[in-house]
Amino acid sequence: MQEKVITRMPPSPTGLFHIGSVRTALYNYLYAKQNGGKFILRIEDTDRERSKKEFEDNITESFKWLKMPYGEFYRQSERTEIYKKYLKNLLDQKIIYVSKEEPKEEGERGEVIRFKNPNKKIKWNDLVLGEIEFDTTDLEDFVIAKDLETPLYHFAVVVDDMEMGVTHIIRGQDHISNTPRQILILEALGGERPQYAHIPLILGADKSKLSKRHGAVSALEYREQGYLPEALLNFVALIGWNPGNDREIFTLDELVKEFSLKKVQKSGGVFNIEKLDWINKEHIKLLPKEEIEKNILAWLKPACAGFRENTQNEKIFPKLIPIIEERISKWGDIKDMIERGELRFFFEAPNYDKLKLIFKNTPAEKIKHNLELARKALENLDENNFETEEIKNTLMLIADNLGSRGELLHPVRYALSGADKSPDPFIIASILGKNETLSRLQKAI
After folding, report:
1. CATH 3.40.50.300 is right for the domain spanning 354-444
2. What's the mean pLDDT in 66-84?
3. Any idea where the Glutamyl/glutaminyl-tRNA synthetase class Ib catalytic domain is (predicted)?
4. What is the pTM for the complete model shown?
């Protein structure tokens, strides 16, 4: 029988869970899931000084938001006795030794535990990069622990992988140089070698290592910006992997079916925030109508808290949903729209320069006359039937009889919005309602 696939994600709680870690975790999750295996989350907190509870919380909360469940959870800080047992065993076999050292700083210990390097070549068949060979002579006798109570990264990670039965180590290419040390330790412990897959790094648009200046932030910051977790996973999956066709939109379940380590590219993939926005917009379209409406209102109402209190506001909010939906890529865009003032005129009558009501070189008197025609025509509409199509039909009857439709539609739109860019006047009027529309047209006149 084929051994059960076990993968792991071992983040260090010394910083926020960033986008590169999200993709590494995703690839490990997908590979385990599609093979009916197990995915482990292991907090590597052997660095006691830099490890913080807040960062561990950020990691676990990120997994919760991304809806990537893990089968088992461990903390290295709770496994000290296990590492101690293995260190003692290797000391007895003289595979490792206590090395007297000159302390680098005052107060530091004067000894460490080093691994006796056999100075040989290590070779492995990487599932992404192919065959890799490494001469370990250059590594010399490397440090694996400060003392029996304080193992360092390379030793703890090997013991954990061996004890937990990890079969596949899927990680970034920046870990390639760690692999020879870890294989040497594993062989000394008598463990079975897992398969390695070193995935390409995520690069910025300038092909340098990804950083905040490229727009990359921690996973939960994407939540704060209003991205969907499904969209973020879809996006990072495609940085360095593709299904072999033009398809770009996947749910997590679909990624489980489609993902393949064989189709992971060798070279780095570029982080493109515009691509993320497009993917997120496509995922919003997949949501049920009620879910879209609920999210838009949840972001819209707090963003409008500074607007003048108006009894009509509660009626206006639901009417804005279609306008907002077609203009956003993520929920956070709603807040940005409000801050830019793009929707303010729906809640407060705008102040504007009257000269902007004039369409091209149309005489002011004619603009005034056209506004009067529009106001009179709309006044005749039933308040209960003051809807977009009725308003459009009414105003177009007038506009089609003028030299240019703009002579009517421009001043009406500007009178209602006071904005250079806005939805068409029919939509604005239907949202404002009859009384407010007539009031704004009268002000313009």
Report:
1. no
2. 96
3. 104-278
4. 0.91
